[in-house]
Amino acid sequence: MQAVVKTRRGPGGEVKTVPTPVPGDDEVLVRVRASSVCGTDVHLWVWNPWAEARVRKIPLVLGHELSGEVVQVGRAVTSLAVGDHVSAETHIVDGTCYQCRTGRMHICENVQVLGVDHDGVFAEFAVLPERNAWKNDPALAPEIASVQEPLGNAVHSLLPEETDEDLAGRRVLVTGCGPIGLMAIAAAKTFGAETVVATEVNPLRAGLARRMGADAVLDPTAGGAPIAERVREASGGRGVDVALEMSGHPASLQLVFEALTAGGRVSLLGLFDRPATLDVDNALVLKAARVQGIFGRRMFTTWYQVKSLLARPAFREKVAEIITHRVPIPEVGRAMELIASMQAAKVSLEAKW
After folding, report:
1. What stretch of H or E contains 99?
2. Average pLDDT across the chain, whole number
3. Per annotation, catalytic residue among 7, 17, 20, 40
4. How buried is 164 (Cβ within 10 angstroms: 0-12 exposed, 13-18 middle, 19+ buried)?
5. Residue extents of the structural domains in the chain
6. What share of the chain is helix, strand, coil (3-state, %, to 5)?
7. Is 40 a catalytic residue?
8. CATH of domain 2-146+312-350
9. Could you confirm whether 91 is annotated as catalytic?
10. Which of 71, 238, 241, 281 is the most buried (most CB within 10 A)?
11. Among 95, 165, 172, which residue's Cα sits nearest to residue 129?
12. CA distance 332 to 317
């Protein structure tokens, strides 16, 4: 088969002919119909310090977001059949550690990630454990089905497992309008948020944030009043009830706590290049702030929530708008450049070899 392979510990990758994988007893072989590019894929492509420290398997087939058709099942597989349309939960877990046995598989202490620790999905075919293959409605467009994994990040940020709060009537801040931030805006409005304020410096993504339903999109680098004051003003003066930090920028870390109303909740999804500082007394303790780290998606509560969202035509249309470019998979280098240069939001890779 053809696949996009990281062949050496350095920038770039190659389209190569490699053996078609063979599924094990508890695995399925999937013909990839569409895949999409994540920020993690860009890190691996440019080979930044995170990639150098994180990746152990070389050569490595890249990619983890996909939709496809099951073409072969292992002899122990019972829940899937040839012809099923599936997407991938990308966290491969052991099922036996303390976290897995207490209902928190998404933070398995031995988690391995598709396209990072295992060969991924930028290929004609991919192997998935049965547990990781999420069965889709066959009518769901392949490019939409392939972005359920990052959409799950957005939903998990809004509805983490440690809270049962209702977003209806809440005021929400989203810092950073990459694809997951944009999905979070659309989901927050669908869940009934009264006001959604977003911060973004890129004009393309700021425009998309407005189309997703953001009530205000603020450029934190613009002059005038401090950004925290502008967020509070845009959210009615009292501050936001829920703040989602999606950018990984140190200034945004400060902002989400400054803009938060007392007793509010912060979800942290963005990853920081280096350790960040925070005034813990005023940001957390005296404000009685609740803070939730977000890693992946709840397996599989979040997937059911995503399925419910995508059953709504209006929501599917918003997700489709976030996919700003469609690129044949052999031109993956162009897709990486579009994202790295912030000329695109989400790039779908078409299975055209």
Report:
1. helix 98-101
2. 96
3. 40
4. exposed
5. 2-146+312-350, 154-293
6. 35, 25, 40
7. yes
8. 3.90.180.10
9. no
10. 241
11. 95
12. 25
pLDDT score of 250: 94
Residues 6+ apart with CB under 8 A from 270: 175, 176, 245, 246, 247, 248, 249, 252
Let me know how long the chain is.
Answer: 353
Secondary-structure class of domain 154-293 per CATH: alpha beta
DSSP-assigned letter for residue 15: E
Checking if the pLDDT of 4 tops 80, the result is yes
Report whether the peptide linkage leading into residue 257 is cis, meaning its omega lies within 30 degrees of zero.
no
Q: If pLDDT is split at 50, 70 and 90, which confidence band does 160 have?
A: confident
Beta strands in the chain (DSSP E): 2-6, 14-17, 27-36, 60-61, 65-73, 85-88, 91-92, 112-113, 125-129, 133-135, 171-175, 195-199, 216-218, 240-245, 260-268, 290-293, 323-328, 346-350
pLDDT at 168: 94
Whether pTM > 0.85 for this model: the answer is yes
